[in-house]
């Protein structure tokens, strides 16, 4: 009788072992689109892991912090740089991590913005004509004629009246199909002889 019980126990143990052998842990995999671009760069990540995955942990910038627990998240990169991305997937049978080194490449925006002004100096109240000289397709312009952080014009080629003595810095910010660009010409406009 004891031999039969031992045999049954061995059979049950073997069946359990074989059933367990059929279940392996997950394998982490993912893709992303786009892989390169200018900031702000919105990247769509797609999980392609195999196995019975129940949880996802994404680190988009290799800082050791979990940035998302979604399966297929989107992440926006605000600064230029080469970013390493990691995905850890978990299941009842274990977990697995894949790391893609310098996977996302965010390039600095090219220097497109430029402008000229005529005249750049004057005596008394002076009307200055500004001309956009940017070397790319531009969709919008923002001019700050006194570098005070206030947008004074959204025209492409505006004019501005300077009615007070002073030396003025001028800033132009342009929006392009790829990214924004800003140029500041410091102490660019000089006005003297105005009545105060």
Question: Could you describe the 3D structure shown?
Answer:
Strands 2-7-6-4 form a 4-stranded mixed sheet, with no helix packed on it. Strands 9-14-13-11 form a 4-stranded mixed sheet, with no helix packed on it. Strands 1-3-5 form a 3-stranded antiparallel sheet, with no helix packed on it. Helix content is 10%, strand content 47%. The radius of gyration is 31 Å and the shape is rod-shaped. The chain contains 1 helix and 14 strands, in the order H-E-E-E-E-E-E-E-E-E-E-E-E-E-E. It folds into 2 domains: 24-106, Immunoglobulin-like, CATH 2.60.40; 115-192, Immunoglobulin-like (Sandwich). The chain is mainly beta and 196 residues long. A hairpin with a 4-residue loop joins strand 13 (166-175) and strand 14. The termini are far apart.
DSSP summary, beta strand count = 14
Helix content: 10-25%
CATH superfamily of the largest domain: Immunoglobulins
Low-confidence stretches: 5-21
Number of domains: 2
In short:
The protein is mostly beta strands. The protein has one helix at 2-21, and strands at residues 30-33, 36-37, 41-47, 55-59, 74-77, 81-91, 94-106, 115-118, 121-123, 126-132, 140-144, 159-162, 166-175, 180-192.
């Amino acid at each position: 009788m004891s031999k039969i019980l031992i045999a049954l126990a061995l059979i049950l143990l073997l069946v359990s072992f074989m059933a367990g052998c059929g279940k392996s842990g997950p394998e982490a995999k993912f893709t992303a689109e786009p892989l390169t671009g200018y900031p702000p760069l919105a990247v769509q990540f797609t999980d392609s892991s195999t196995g019975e995955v129940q949880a996802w942990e994404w680190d988009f910038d290799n800082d050791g912090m979990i940035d998302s627990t979604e399966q297929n998240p989107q992440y926006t990169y605000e600064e230029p740089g080469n970013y390493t991305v990691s995905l850890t997937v978990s299941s009842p049978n274990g977990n697995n991590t894949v790391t893609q080194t310098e996977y996302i490449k965010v390039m600095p925006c090219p220097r497109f913005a430029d402008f000229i002004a005529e005249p750049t100096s004057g005596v008394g109240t002076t009307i200055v004509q500004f001309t956009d000289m940017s070397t790319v397709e531009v969709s919008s312009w923002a001019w700050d004629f006194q570098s005070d952080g206030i947008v004074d014009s959204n025209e492409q080629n505006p004019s501005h009246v300077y009615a007070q003595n002073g030396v003025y810095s001028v800033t132009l910010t342009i929006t392009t199909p790829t990214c924004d660009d800003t140029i500041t010409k410091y102490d660019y406009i000089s006005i003297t002889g105005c009545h105060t």
